[in-house]
């Protein structure tokens, strides 16, 4: 096998360069002389994550598709700490990305199963308040393109960036309670009535019909005297303005030069 470099990173003070090679080795080099200092052994699959510590020039983090996360002392060429991303009943999860916190006391990783892994000092109690599964209800909704090749949400026929803030749901599409819906930017100050999504039956790719969130709950708002969402109103107004501009542009494009009687001719 011809070795190939999959990732490269300098340490905090730029004295060392670490390269990840597709033979699963990490190599530590002197950045001034190019001398190979250490081979770091431990990974069993390709590594695409190398992160340097924000202020400790000795420390480098690596993570790979084998589910392993290593903290290395690159000056000595030794492992300082090792974690393995084992997922119960599913084997290991490949680690796709990692970042240190600014103070260097924590780091967070994401894996191939959609998990956010947070490592650091202290206890996990603050994080236990958040549900295990958190998705936006629009994450896997299909998109289409209009006649101008612009992307639209297939269900609402709206541009995705003009749609109301999405709802938080679990992996099966069931909405979380209103206290979690306020975690979504744009819904922080919404009344409880505006945090209850509209549910409907949606056919999945294998033909199964399931109940899922299909959009903003607006039914009977006027009858109940509820205040409409200010943000949703602004989005609707922007969409209306865009539709009007699009219609005006199409009308100009379809109107040709005038003849002597002042009657427009179609191009």
From TrEMBL:
A GO CC term attached to the entry: nucleus
Sorted UniProt keywords: Repeat, WD repeat
Keyword presence, Cytoplasm: no
Pfam families per UniProt: WD40
Gene Ontology biological process terms, A to Z: cytoskeleton organization; regulation of cell shape; regulation of transcription by RNA polymerase II
WD repeats: 1-39, 40-82
The UniProt record lists the keyword Lyase: no
Full protein name: BRWD1 protein
Annotated Polar residues bias: 240-257
Region (Disordered): 240-267
Annotated InterPro entries: Bromo_WD_repeat, WD40/YVTN_repeat-like_dom_sf, WD40_repeat_CS, WD40_repeat_dom_sf, WD40_rpt
């Amino acid at each position: 096998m011809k070795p190939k470099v999959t990732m490269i990173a300098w340490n905090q003070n730029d004295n060392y360069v670490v390269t990840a090679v597709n033979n699963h080795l990490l190599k530590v080099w002197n950045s001034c002389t190019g001398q190979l200092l250490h081979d770091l052994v431990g990974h069993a699959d390709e590594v695409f994550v190398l992160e340097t510590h924000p202020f400790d020039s000795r420390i480098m983090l690596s993570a790979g598709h084998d589910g392993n996360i290593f903290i290395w002392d690159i000056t000595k060429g030794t492992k300082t700490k090792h974690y393995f991303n084992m997922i119960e009943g599913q084997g290991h999860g490949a680690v796709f990305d990692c970042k240190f916190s600014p103070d260097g006391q924590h780091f967070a990783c994401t894996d191939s199963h959609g998990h956010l892994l947070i490592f650091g000092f202290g206890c996990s109690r603050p994080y236990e308040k958040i549900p295990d599964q958190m998705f936006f209800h629009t994450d896997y909704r299909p998109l289409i393109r209009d006649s101008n090749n612009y992307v639209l949400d297939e269900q609402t026929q709206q541009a995705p960036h003009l749609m109301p803030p999405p709802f938080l749901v679990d992996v099966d599409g069931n909405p979380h309670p209103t206290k979690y819906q306020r975690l979504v930017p744009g819904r922080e100050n919404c009344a409880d009535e505006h945090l209850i999504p509209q549910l409907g039956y949606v056919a999945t790719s294998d033909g199964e019909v399931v109940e899922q969130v299909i959009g903003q709950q607006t039914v009977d708002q006027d009858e109940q005297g509820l205040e409409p969402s200010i943000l949703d109103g602004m989005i609707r107004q922007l969409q209306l303005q865009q539709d009007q501009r699009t219609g005006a542009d199409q009308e100009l494009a379809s109107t040709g030069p005038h003849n002597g009687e002042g009657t427009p001719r179609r191009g």
